[in-house]
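In keeping with the milestone schedule agreed at the kick-off meeting, the structural modelling team has produced records for the first pair of proteins. Each record is given below as a sequence line and a structure-token line. The laboratory manager (R.T.) confirmed that both were archived under the project's standard naming scheme.
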Amino acid sequence: MTVPHKGVRGPLDGVRVVELAGIGPGPFAAMLLADLGADVVRVDRPGGAGLGIDPAYDLTNRNKRSVLVDLKAPDGPARVLDLVERADVLVEGYRPGVAERLGVGPEACHARNPRLVYGRMTGWGQDGPLAPRAGHDVAYIAVTGTLGMIGEPDEPPTVPANLVGDYAGGSLYLVVGVLAALHHARAHGTGQVVDAAIVDGAAHLATMIHGMLAAGGWQDHRGANLLDGGCPFYGTYETADGGHMAVGALEQRFYDEFAALLGLAEAADARADPARWGELRDAVAARFKTRTRAEWTAVFEGSDACVAPVLSLREAPHHPHLAARGTFTDHGGLTQPAPAPRFSATPTAVRSGPARPGADTEGVARDWDVPALLDAGTT
């Protein structure tokens, strides 16, 4: 068994990251790097980043430090480049060309630090007809076909918050790219630009589905497939008290246990005949309506029927399994998801709450040896 090193903040301990303040997937990607132990310095602009959330509750800024720099001030770009010279990674989420106009684009940064990994987070990417256009998560996943897969067949597509585009297709792909480029930089001594576009990542998430589509195993419309709610033993059902249960009993042995515990009786054999799936769905729905969510949770507890209660955001931290694993944690009075994944030798943690804009300028100036930060143009 590997013994964790004392004082190590995570597997990225010692990695320095400059984050140019933005909203959405860029800050979330930088949070992931911070959760993994990197020293992330967020360069906030005077006046805030745009959405107006109280910085005390912006959990995507946890485990970071913040300095205030006005990139439009005469000395602003120079202060950022001072940080870049000492950094391993930079993360920015501007529209294409904006960082260059501000004087902190890849060419300027690599002139100061050739080993720098320059991570760019956009919706449309750095090139293509839509690259200069504004957009948000819902539009990015719309054009990739991802949004069109989600929802009931006779209703408009269901918007999955901003999880599929911003965070799955955007932040996670940026972090994968940054870590890969960081490995390359350390092996070969040269940095590079990582172009993470949400449209690319959201499309890539559906790779398996495209294979199934080509093979004739997926229909190109909602609610007609094994994994999109078209299958009666893979979906959600309302309970007697207005709650819901999630069913994922795909394999035969799990379905058999599910059918037995639910009490499907003669309708159970409709599983093998898609022509009878409507009949099976009605039977499953009727059974679930006979008991409350808590009662059905008790029925399926300890089974391999692949059934779980659908919990709210406030309920989730209290689920016995998640509580036992510490999937959620409390820090500074805020309940929040704990860092993930987990490491045996370099454990991670929520070390500090959301960084307040400009609160860490003195410490960063000292630790990164950038005394000019204390005099940077911030007005």
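The second protein of the pair:
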Amino acid sequence: MSKTTPFYTRLAHVLVSIICLFYLAIIGETLLAPLIFAFLFSLLLLPFANFLEKRWKFPRSLSSATVLLALVLAITSIAYLLLNQLSDLTNDLPAFKEQLLATSTTLQDWISDTFNIDNHEQISYINSATTEALSKGTSILGQTLLSVSSVMLFLVFIFLYTFFILLHRRLLLTFLVSLFKEKHSAVVYDVVFNIQYIVKKYIVGLFLQMLIVSVLACTAFEIIGIKYAFLLGLITGIFNVIPYIGILTSLILTVLLTFSTMNSTSVLLVIFSVFLIHLIDSNYVMPKIVGSKVKINTLTALLGLVLGELIWGIKGMFLSIPIIAIFKVIFDRVDGLKPWGYVLGEDDSAPKISVTETEQVLIEKMEEPE
């Protein structure tokens, strides 16, 4: 006679497991973050590596190095475009400063008339704030240089991990299959195949989304006549990869630069154009191009973004959606974890459950407006 584990015991096991996973993720950021990025890049590059090996008879080491070199060149090209535009923006900082001073004079008059704060008090406050900022300039510069070196080291580890994952992919697959009993081998292969397919489709979709949004933003900003329209459009496309938060961040940056160089009408046109681009992206580009067979509901996506930022910062926000998609593939194929897969997906992805007449009445009452 088997005993059923009490609910509070199972709940305690789940909570302890979740806490342990988050704790391990926090203390293991240095190892896990580049490793997960490398895993995603490996899944993206895997079809190209297989093509080189089967079509051109490349050795595995040569095919892995070739596709990795292509990835490095692509990332370097995007970084070069950004840095080239940013250098031109730096040269125009004095002109921006003059425009901001002229605009701030009008703003000071409005503050003085509205809140009865004398202009001299405003200037003294600005000067004190500027002095304090300059006093911290050395430390900020040091932190910036440290951040740049950390990013470079982070990218180096990503590329190294990507190469070795591609090189030893058969060994890693054999290891995963060997962890489970032979009767579960088909399920393991199915999970691996679906993870590869979904993540590859998701990443390719993100690149297409980034390209489309960048083209739309650059075109709109050129029509409005914004200076550095290409830079701001490219930033809008890249930041848009972060759901919900990215488009808002790029809008604030674009509005600030537009405000410092143009009039208020142009600022309103920028806000309207970014809002229109976001509507096109969220209603057509995202569901048609980026959408995959794994549908993640908006609540789960938003919670994933918040948790990702809390754990790993910006890196966590980029990784949250693909990690949730991977977990959903696993949950959907393991009997004991299927409810977790349902809660991650869309409303129409969960199976219909049979309910009694009394339960149906209670459900209808819950859905009725008050």
